[in-house]
């Protein structure tokens, strides 16, 4: 597998391909962003504050948590800590891409990784050895722009929708990730065990600590541990 800096394929064509591959995700990302913006407006956040949050954090799950904590009067330090905890899974995701970033200057690598969300990472992993830097930015910048616009738009739409959850908009996030998950399925022998381990640990931790976000991190760690263990067994 070559790193992202060694690929010489046409940049504009790869960027356009990244944009094209992102378009189907908009069916989930836009309603999800509108829902977040609506809930943020009901919690007292202004369109400018929502724009700053989406522009600087760019992580839907942790933003929902931040809005919920803000609505319940949590301290700023508690909100920041909770956001960091939820986003710790990005350390694991970034580690899988680290070999591809060899040769990138630190600042450029940081900008590249800023665009890493669950969806961007999923499409990058599905791209495999064909992943290029223009493709990454095609996916990442498209999602970033749409997310920023939809969350801010949601702050205005919030006044028109009394209960966004009643419209089923909260399920779009789940539906989106189920679609992404299907793309990672290989076969029962290699895929089923990590998925079951991750799901079981996440459900168990959430049952024990329903108000926290540890189930996300621990579910990811357990699935990764089982995958690594099975990989070692195959190569032993």
From TrEMBL:
Coiled-coil positions: none
Keywords, alphabetical: Cell membrane, Membrane, Transmembrane, Transmembrane helix, Transport
Transmembrane regions listed in the UniProt entry: 15-36, 48-67, 73-92, 135-159, 165-185, 192-208, 214-231
Subcellular compartments: Cell membrane
Topological type in the membrane: Multi-pass membrane protein
Cellular component terms per the entry's GO annotation: plasma membrane
GO biological process, one term: L-valine transmembrane transport
Stated family: Belongs to the AzlC family.
Protein name, per record: Branched-chain amino acid ABC transporter permease
């Amino acid at each position: 597998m070559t790193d992202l800096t060694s690929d010489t394929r046409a940049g504009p064509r790869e960027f356009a391909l990244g944009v094209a591959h992102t378009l189907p995700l908009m069916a989930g990302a836009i309603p999800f962003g509108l829902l977040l913006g609506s809930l943020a407006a009901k919690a007292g956040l202004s369109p400018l504050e929502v724009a700053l949050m989406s522009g600087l954090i760019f992580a839907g799950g942790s933003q929902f948590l931040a809005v919920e904590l803000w609505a319940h009067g949590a301290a700023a330090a508690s909100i920041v800590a909770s956001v960091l905890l939820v986003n710790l899974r990005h350390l694991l995701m970034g580690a899988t891409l680290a070999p591809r970033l060899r040769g990138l200057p630190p600042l450029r690598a940081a900008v590249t990784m800023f665009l890493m969300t669950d969806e961007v990472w999923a499409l990058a992993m599905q791209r495999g050895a064909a992943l290029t830097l223009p493709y990454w930015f095609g996916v990442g910048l498209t999602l970033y722009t749409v997310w920023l616009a939809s969350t801010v738009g949601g702050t205005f739409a919030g006044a028109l929708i009394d209960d966004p959850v009643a419209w089923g908009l909260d399920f779009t996030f789940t539906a989106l990730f189920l679609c992404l998950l299907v793309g990672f399925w290989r076969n029962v022998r290699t895929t089923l065990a990590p998925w079951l381990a991750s799901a079981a640990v996440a459900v168990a931790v959430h049952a024990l600590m329903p108000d926290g976000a540890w189930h996300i991190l621990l579910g990811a760690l357990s699935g990764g541990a089982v995958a690594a263990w099975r990989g070692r067994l195959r190569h032993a």
